[in-house]
Amino acid sequence: MIRMEGVNKYFDDFQALTDINLEVPTGQVVVVLGPSGSGKSTLCRTINRLETVESGAIAIDGVPLPEEGKALARLRADVGMVFQQFNLFPHMTIKDNVTLGPMKVRKLKKADAEKRAMALLDRVGIANQSHKYPAQLSGGQQQRVAIARALAMSPKVMLFDEPTSALDPEMVNEVLEVMADLAREGMTMLVVSHEMGFARKVADRVLFMADGAIVEDASPEDFFTSPTSSRAKDFLGKILAH
Predict the structure, then answer these.
(1) Contact (CB, 8 A) for 17 and 39
(2) With left for phi above 0 and alpha for psi between -120 and 50, is residue 68 left, alpha or beta?
(3) Pairing mode, strands 2-11 and 55-60
(4) Does domain 2-193+201-241 have CATH number 3.40.50.300?
(5) According to the model, what pLDDT value does residue 72 have?
(6) Across the strands, what pairs with 217?
(7) What is the per-residue pLDDT across 169-214, written as a single tens digit (0 to 9) for each?
(8) For position 73, what pLDDT does the model report?
(9) Choosing a second label site near 26 at 20 to 30 A (CA), which of 13, 36, 155, 206?
(10) Distance between CA atoms of 77 and 29, rounded to whole angstroms?
(11) pTM for this model (two decimals)
């Protein structure tokens, strides 16, 4: 579903991604771990061209990532993205936030879009909040709206860029539970996260990044019990000691 071959990304003289080669099959859940500045979010953002790359190839479901224009917009409609910040439209109700994309991009009729929106809001547990505005919801509720909004486009793959890092601790689990449900339903997912419990329980694979490179690619069991690189051992030692 996701294929990256020889991807390199620079910010001026700084190399953010170094020779990234990655394949994510349909239905697989991949969690990307690593210290701050290791390239995790940049990797995530290149997959739907929020960040351009200097070299290499990226394809979604066999289709090379277009440069720009309508073809890129169509591909982005197939790739749901959930960010640290919820990026909801503050002047629109929750229901309208979820229906906007399907009506504008997928050309759904308003009644069909609203029916789908309510079903998705029910799925993430906040259908009773559909008439409210984002500022009236908690952070956890807003992030669940953001997930519903991404799902409303019927994406082939979902990208999550540290979706719980801006949340209060008591709100983290409600978002992770929605993500775990998606994983159980077979959604292809790439998740940048520091949530070790989620990675252990839900991931099919764990990628560990350091200095812009994928240092380890292993099952959760192998990664957490017997990491092979000194960087991963050091990272886990610091994280799991707390």
Answers:
(1) yes
(2) beta
(3) antiparallel
(4) yes
(5) 83
(6) 207
(7) 888 988 999 999 999 999 999 999 989 999 999 999 999 999 999 9
(8) 81
(9) 36
(10) 20
(11) 0.92
Q: Which residue has the tokens 């956890």?
A: 140
Instruction: Return phi, psi of residue 27, to 5°.
Output: 85, 0
**Can you give the residue ranges of every domain in the chain?**
2-193+201-241
Phi, psi dihedrals of residue 169, rounded to the nearest 5°: -55, -35
Q: DSSP letters along 150-194, please?
A: HHTT--SEEEEESTTTTS-HHHHHHHHHHHHHHHHTT-EEEEE--
- Give me the phi and psi of 40, to 5 degrees please: -60, -55
CA distances, 78 to each of 30, 82, 154, 170, 222 (Å) = 18, 13, 7, 31, 32
Q: Read off the DSSP letter of residue 59.
A: E
Host H or E run for residue 43: helix 40-46
CA 41 to chain centroid? 9
Segment 97-152, tens digit of pLDDT: 999 989 998 899 999 999 999 999 999 999 999 999 999 999 999 999 999 999 99
Strand order in the sheet with 213-218: 79-82, 157-161, 188-192, 29-33, 205-210, 213-218
The token pair at 229 is 């690189």
Tokens of 74: 């169509």
How many Å separate Cα 44 from the centre of its chain? Answer: 7
CA angle 33, 158, 98 (to 5 degrees): 130
pLDDT of residue 241: 65
Residue 46: CB partners within 8 Å, gap ≥ 6?
4, 7, 9, 17, 52, 53, 58
